[in-house]
Amino acid sequence: MSDVGMWEVVVGFLSATFVLPVIQQPSWSQRARAAATFLWSVIAGGVTVYLNAGFSALHSVREVVSAVLLMLVSAVASYHGFAKPIGIAPAIERATAL
Question: What are 38-69's pLDDT values in tens digits?
Fold first, then answer.
């Protein structure tokens, strides 16, 4: 796995545990929550590629698409397989609900 890939997995895990529960609201529909997760993955994936490989890497469609998909898979798996079952994500969502 490349350095960028490793950072995508780390950022995906941390964001699913601590960032996405703040962004998402418990009252949102599943569709809205999925869209927020995807949008976050695009933003975080692009930023991670930029920070690891510089601006020139953002011109590589393959690099950016791979980073976004790896971020999305990591975030979804971490949220549903870790943060939600142990109660971290729901507690953060309740605490930050508008």
Answer: 999 999 988 888 887 766 666 678 888 888 99
Q: Cβ neighbours of residue 46 under 8 Å, at least 6 residues apart?
A: 58, 64, 67, 68
CB 50 within 8 A of CB 43: no
Per the rule left: phi > 0, alpha: psi between -120 and 50, beta: everything else, 24 is beta
- Return the SS3 of 79: helix
Whether residue 5 contacts residue 62, with contact meaning beta carbons closer than 8 Å, is answered with no
- Cβ of 95: how many Cβ atoms within 10 Å? 9
Q: Under the phi-then-psi rule, with left for phi > 0, alpha for psi from -120 to 50, and beta for the rest, what region is 25?
A: beta
pLDDT digits (tens, 9 = 90+) for 71-87: 999 999 999 999 999 99
What is the value of pTM for the model shown? 0.84
Quote the CA–CA distance of 82 and 75 in Å, as a whole number.
Answer: 10
Residue type, 34: A
